[in-house]
Amino acid sequence: MQIASVRQASPAAGGTGIARLAPQPRTVAETGLADNLLGDLICKHLHDAGVLDMQRLVERLALTGSVLDELLAFLRKDGRIEVLGQSGGQGLRYGLTDRGRSAAKDALLRSGYIGPAPFPVERYRELLSAQSVHQSRVDAQAMRDAFDGVVLREELLDELGPAMNSGRAMMIYGPAGTGKTYISQRLIKLFHEAVWIPHAIAINEAVIEIFDPQVHKPLPSGEPRSLRLDEGIDRRLVCCRRPIVITGGELTLDMLDIRFDPYARQYQAPLQLKASNGIFIIDDLGRQRVAPVDLFNRWIVPMEEKKDYLNLGGGRHCELPFDLILVFSTNLNPLELADEAFLRRIGYKLHFGYLRPDEYQRIWQQECEKLGIPFDPALVEYAIERLHHGEQRPLAPCHPRDLLGMAMDRQRYLGLDDAEGPSPKTLAWAWRNYFVSLNAN
Fold first, then answer.
1. Alpha carbon distance 413, 304 (integer Å)
2. How do beta strands 324-330 and 92-96 pair?
3. pTM above 0.70?
4. Which chain regions cross the lipid bilayer (predicted)?
5. Angle (CA) 180 184 188, round 5°
6. Within a domain: residue 23?
7. pLDDT score at 6
8. Are 337 and 284 in contact, with CB atoms under 8 Å apart?
9. pLDDT tens across 71-106, in order?
């Protein structure tokens, strides 16, 4: 998959290749899963819902009718389910027998997962490799298109572009308020290919949920969905945009490994697994509840080997491709967070600095447009010369947004017309309330 611009690509881009890699399974054997795992999952769904017809089973398990026919026949022969007649003439309904209810309770004690059928981990490895984020290529025009309207120096754009192509981690550092987080989040705009995300994966008997609606944004796949469709892409996969995961001071080491919730009896995927084939941003580096050296040590092997070794507990481990763009962002001195040996492993260290007056003015004008107030060159000149330079405070990209927003809060409090825009007096009031002054009375 190649990127040469930011034109909107087809949401099913690459679908033909994925259809060969992950076709619709027509039999239980083609699902790559054991009969017992799928049988237990059907029993748990019936225990949860009471009675289900074929259409509802297809929707819940994301399997085709032919696969479910085979499984239902197996469960009926085993005495775990029974046919309860037709539903309004539309199809047979299925429910649990006493034996089936007992089996469902036992299955729930082992695993609380009730959702679509999982995707086997062996095929998931192939899927991650087939839609690798590192197959994309970013050129200078793509960078300028993605950051159109953003006040960012050309030389910094031309540093970010090669970093995105390198396949290596990057560190963005500089003073607070210089746009590191905003620019990092915007990097995902460089990618427009669809990726296919499994609802869950199966690692032996363990089922780990992967799809997270807060992270994965579905796209229309264009795939017709009928009960007995034997062609197209496996319905256990969801067509999504490339994901971006952002974590900050709340990050702990256990969030980077598979976790088992003993109450729900479910496995939770680590953050970097949800970010696979996308971007993973660790923001506010150095302000986590874990020591930076421990956090850095967690990434040494994945960065060098492009593989991540996840712990499932009980001495069980699983190896998965480490396919993502890893971005560290900090307003601390990188040399205080890690030694030079580790910093060498991070390919690119990009410094975000303060603004020039002309850049500050452009951002000020953009913020005025967003707020629907007139742009007054004299007011921004007052802010730069009298306020910033007068108190020797550098110009940061966040200042126009924050100062104008607070000034307009004051305007509304005083009952003044928004269309007038703030006055120097109102702006000075916002300034006093924005910055900490140890000399304040």
1. 56
2. unpaired
3. yes
4. none
5. 165
6. no
7. 33
8. no
9. 999 999 999 999 987 766 667 899 999 999 999 999
pLDDT digits (tens, 9 = 90+) for 350-380: 999 999 999 999 999 999 999 999 999 999 9
Q: Tell the burial category of 402 from Cβ atoms under 10 Å away from its Cβ (0-12, 13-18, 19+).
A: middle
Could you list the residue range(s) of the whole structural domain that residue 93 is in? 34-117
Residue 296 has pLDDT above 70, yes or no: yes
As given in the structure block, the two tokens for residue 255 are 């969030």
SS3 content of the chain, % helix, strand, coil (to 5): 45, 20, 40
Verify that 40 and 171 share a domain, yes or no.
no
Checking DSSP bridges between strand 348-351 and strand 324-330, what pairing results, if any? unpaired
Tell me the C-alpha distance between 346 and 360, whole Å: 31
Does the residue 425 lie in any domain?
yes
What distance in Å separates the CA atoms of residue 128 and residue 210, rounded to the nearest whole number?
12
DSSP state of 384: I
Is residue 317 very low, low, confident or very high in pLDDT (cuts 50, 70, 90)? confident
Looking at the fold, whether 154 and 186 belong to one and the same domain comes out as yes
How far CA 181 is from CA of 109, 173, 205, 359, 386, in Å, comes to: 42, 10, 39, 18, 29
Cβ neighbours of residue 409 closer than 8 Å, sequence gap 6 or more: 430
Q: Answer yes or no: do 169 and 317 share one domain.
A: yes
* 25 within domain boundaries: no
**Token pair 């994901």 is at which residue?**
243
Question: Structurally, how many domains does the chain consist of?
Answer: 3
250 with 282: CB under 8 angstroms?
A: no
Do 38 and 105 lie in a common domain? yes
Q: Are residues 70 and 188 in the same domain?
A: no
Could you tell me if 46 and 102 lie in one domain? Answer: yes
Contact 221, 11 (CB under 8 A): yes
- Token pair in block for residue 378: 């004299």
Are 385 and 337 contacting, i.e. CB atoms less than 8 angstroms apart? no
Q: Tell me how far CA of residue 334 lies from CA of 292, 294, 296, 363, in angstroms.
A: 10, 15, 12, 28
Ranking 179-188, 262-271, 407-416, 432-441 by mean pLDDT, the lowest is 432-441
Query: With 70 as the cut, is the pLDDT of residue 226 above it?
Result: no
376 & 416 share domain: yes
| C-alpha to C-alpha distance for 132 and 325, rounded to whole angstroms | 10
334, 221: one domain: yes
In a domain, 440, yes or no: no
